[in-house]
Amino acid sequence: MPIKLKATCSECMTMHVADLEYDQEDIKCPACGHAMRNLPEGELNEIETAIKKQKTYNIVALIGFFIALLCFALWVLNQNPDLYSFGRKLPPDYQPDGMMRSGVMFITCAGLLVTLVFGILGSWKRYIVEF
Ligand SMILES: [Zn+2]
Fold it and tell me: Which range marks the domain in which residue 120 is found?
């Protein structure tokens, strides 16, 4: 699988997205034809591993965000018994459940924290090849 990397040409300063293959001879600028030898295999391997890790972090961040969103929606719904009943008949003395409400809010905050931390981890490093 090729590794997608941003590459900047030192001759004409054009930036393009290079699909680097392991067995590729060199990296070539599509604008002016300037070329450099491809990165050594070890380096390519390192970059590929790092990018895969970042993708995983980003997925975790996204999942955290959706969980937070869901729990926040529940929290808002719970505040309004008419909505929260989903058509059911609630007892006339219905009170929003305080424990449930703080629990859901806690999960919302935890989910957002997960999103924050993994979002930062997932975008901490950017690889740009200059040649
Ligand atoms: Zn160029």
Answer: 3-130
